[in-house]
Amino acid sequence: MRIDWIVAAVTFLMFVLWAFSYYSLINTGEAVSVSEAAMSAAGKISDYTRMDFSATPANITAPSDMENVTVWAYMNWTVEEKNSTRVVTVQLSNQSLPCGISGDRLYWKANLSAGGNHFFIESAGLDTSLNCGQSIPPTDENQSTLWVTESGVIFSDERNSLICSQMNQSYHNTKKSIGITFDFNLLIENADGITTCGMPVPVSGRNVFVLPVSGRLWEGGAVNMSVRLWR
Questions:
Q1: Burial of 89 (0-12, 13-18, 19+ CB in 10 A)
Q2: What is the pLDDT of residues 107-153, one digit of tens each?
Q3: What pTM value is reported for the model?
Q4: Domain residue limits, the chain
Q5: Could you tell me if residue 92 is left (phi over 0), alpha (psi between -120 and 50 degrees) or otherwise beta?
Q6: N or C: which end of the chain has fewer CB within 10 A?
Q7: What separation in angstroms does the CA of 94 have from each of 88, 120, 188, 228?
Q8: Bridge partners of residue 139, in order along the sequence
């Protein structure tokens, strides 16, 4: 009888331990699944805030130092690219040189040093008015040599402001266009301060997932963002 009692007790304990382990495994698996889904959704939101960006190196060799010279290049733009085009000496500095567009030519004014001079012709997927709208007399002299265009994605203060406005005015439509089921909130920090948009973060009763994102800005400098999601 004592042996039967011991066997029964051990069997019962084994069953309890198995049931507890199975329950823990299910809950842990569910937590991992929700966490992975949240991070995937956060990635979609982060991608939504970015825009396409390209930079084309433009080089010209000058025989001597020259001031306020007109330099030019042939370009092949879309309308959006043409409007956002600017010419800089340092990538993403937002310090565009005086520039103008005539047909398929981009002209800009620059001070040249004897030897090689390097510029970057940048454009972005941003709905904006014409950046290179100055009147620069056309010339056939000082044509620059263009190199391979580098493409990527970048953040923009202007785009972030537009997206925040969309979220606050039509949150559910924005959520639908991103293609996620989580509720979310954006906290955006740049040189001008901190902006939040989207749904208010729940005070309690929800698991809130946070994805920190940072990157360079089209307008110069950098931005730090926190994408916060919950169900």
A1: middle
A2: 999 999 999 999 999 999 988 899 999 999 999 999 999 999 999 99
A3: 0.79
A4: 52-153
A5: left
A6: N
A7: 7, 11, 20, 30
A8: none
